[in-house]
Amino acid sequence: MALRDVRALVFDVFGTVVDWRSSVIRELEAAGARYGVSADWGAFADAWRYEGYLGGIAKVNRGEWPFMTTDELHRRKLEELLPQYGLGGMPEAEREDLNRAWHRLDPWPDSVPGLWRLKQRYVISTLSNGNVALLVQMAKRAGLPWDCVLGADVLGAFKPKPEAYLAGARLLGFAPGQVMLVAAHKADLRAAQAAGLRAAFIPRPKEAGPNVQPDLEPDPSFDITARDFLELARLLEEQAA
Amino acid sequence: MALRDVRALVFDVFGTVVDWRSSVIRELEAAGARYGVSADWGAFADAWRYEGYLGGIAKVNRGEWPFMTTDELHRRKLEELLPQYGLGGMPEAEREDLNRAWHRLDPWPDSVPGLWRLKQRYVISTLSNGNVALLVQMAKRAGLPWDCVLGADVLGAFKPKPEAYLAGARLLGFAPGQVMLVAAHKADLRAAQAAGLRAAFIPRPKEAGPNVQPDLEPDPSFDITARDFLELARLLEEQAA
């Protein structure tokens, strides 16, 4: 199938659509200030994301842990991190609210205008390891105009399992080759391609903190590489012309 | 929980948000015209809906048929109806397109402005026996601004099974009492209430054809009865004031 057969664009969310790190650091700083604690909140955010979330998904995908939602994976790691960072006395309601920092992530500057433009020609949906409730709250706050919200709890699997990508295409009513994953992460894109989807790479150089060196090199094995969602829209419009 | 605790409005779709009967009759008339066939297209639409769709769901819910999507239930009945109405020679691509008439249903006049207004205060989502692909295509064509699209294929059950309502609340991240079903059909609302949801009744006197007498009487056992979605928004805003 050619690129002009693509009918739906499905998006990785954390890092690709929203700037998780700055947003989470902002909420951790505010929590720290309430308790008179200062700490390396970037390191807290990185541990929450890389060990808690990505590490937890890897455990679920290896069968070591039962399936749980992203909200639950975040909460589990939060319990471990709070006492390490001098916030062990935080009461339950405040913990639950801080856990929802992941519902309040800011979009990259091009995300909202880019999605509106892409939505004119394509079905646009999340294809995220986040859970639906988290993704819906995030979209409402940030103004992300999704046609559909698909998360791991309705896909029935976490990416990079092939089932997650295939369930996305099936639920949207398209063949895998009619669906293109848009993501900032090469491993996600490669897994989507292995499942038969198309792949658009959007490097996000500001996603990672100083402790992670992201792989931002263009890779000709992807169908498209674009600087942001507006350039992606332009390139797709040229392909269709 | 009080009415002011409601955080999400979930909507029945066929009949409540969109006028399935006029829309389907319009497509059947066009198909008939292409083949020089005239027939009682209202009776075709009614059989498609009441025997094919609702009858099929009842069979799935009784365990007589395996789960299948609404697109599949519609297609199954279409195969039976086409030869009965002189359209047995229709080729496959045209059948498949006619089956997607259910993706192209027109909204009631208040649906789009009402949903935009309700969306300001609430998470608004479908809670439909339709499948996600059908609901997404319908929303894109009609301009229905859903925050989330939930259909039987992600809910894991057809209404009026309690699991369908409970899955909707769980996926949106709310307790059942924080979610209100908006529907034109009392049986749907009663099943939602039995599962712990709130219920708003919107009678739609123009939904049914001449062969069905809908029950449009107000019923005080529902939390709200409103003439349309704009009145529903007004009544909810008053409750919250």
TrEMBL record, chains A, B:
Transmembrane segments: none annotated. GO terms for molecular function: hydrolase activity, acting on acid halide bonds, in C-halide compounds. It comes from the Bacteria. The keyword Chaperone does not apply. Pfam families: Hydrolase (PF00702). Keywords: Hydrolase. Gene3D superfamilies: 1.10.150.750, HAD superfamily/HAD-like. SUPFAM superfamilies: HAD-like. PANTHER family: HALOACID DEHALOGENASE, TYPE II (AFU_ORTHOLOGUE AFUA_2G07750)-RELATED, HYDROLASE, HALOACID DELAHOGENASE-RELATED. This is 2-haloacid dehalogenase. It comes from Tepidiforma thermophila (strain KCTC 52669 / CGMCC 1.13589 / G233). The lineage of its organism: Bacteria, Bacillati, Chloroflexota, Tepidiformia, Tepidiformales.
